[in-house]
Specification:
Strand content: 5-15%
Shape: flat
Order of helices and strands: EEEHHHHH
Radius of gyration: 26 Å
Number of helices: 5
Helix content: 25-40%
Structural class: alpha+beta
Largest sheet: 3 strands, antiparallel
Length: 183
């Protein structure tokens, strides 16, 4: 810890004020690090020393970079899905894309995004602000199609008939509808 003293206050066997007799207990550890103005408060059911909890909390923040990049850069925080498989697939794709964007931001040359950015660093936020200024309609597109989709679609309705709803046909799964009793 490079010559600084980190103090820890530990309270064991705590329960919630609203808990009934015999609940699970937890610990509260308050860490005072001289580098920070406010103390770090950790409530956990995990056993272990205050030093181990301090180390775990420091390791936690780099892990949160990928979801943060996916939410800020891709807008994953606005994506809502309802299908069973989509609930897993969308977060997986967002994490993968967040990982790629974090790598691109870290390996690209750092560019200032305004006059205030005197010591620019290669971060996802700066990459996002640089990409906001790019007019993607001027990016050259390769000639021809990129790949041929080999799937049979001749049996599917096309155009307006493809998305027109028929009367009396449910478009939602039957188990998602709630039946109400009519008195």
């Amino acid at each position: 810890m490079a010559g600084r003293v980190v103090r820890a206050h530990v309270w064991n066997d705590l329960v919630l004020a609203t808990a009934k007799p015999g609940p699970a207990t937890f610990r509260c550890v308050v860490l005072h690090d001289p580098r920070y103005h406010d103390p770090l408060v950790v409530a956990t059911p995990l056993p272990g020393s205050a030093y181990a909890l301090w180390g775990l909390s420091r390791d936690r923040w780099p892990v949160e970079q990928l979801p943060l990049a996916a939410k800020q850069m891709l807008g994953a925080h606005r994506a809502f899905v309802f299908g069973g498989e989509s609930r897993h697939r969308l977060p997986e794709l967002a994490l993968l894309a967040g990982n790629v964007l974090t790598y691109v931001a870290a390996t690209a040359a750092a560019r200032a995004t305004g006059f205030w950015d005197r010591r620019c660093r290669p971060t996802c936020g700066r990459l996002r602000r640089v990409l906001l200024r790019v007019d993607f309609s001027e990016v050259p597109v390769p000639e021809g199609s990129l790949r041929k989709k080999v799937s049979v679609t001749a049996h599917l309705p096309k155009g307006v008939q493809g998305h027109r709803r028929r009367p009396g046909v449910l478009t939602l799964p039957a188990n998602s509808l709630r039946r109400r009793k009519v008195a």
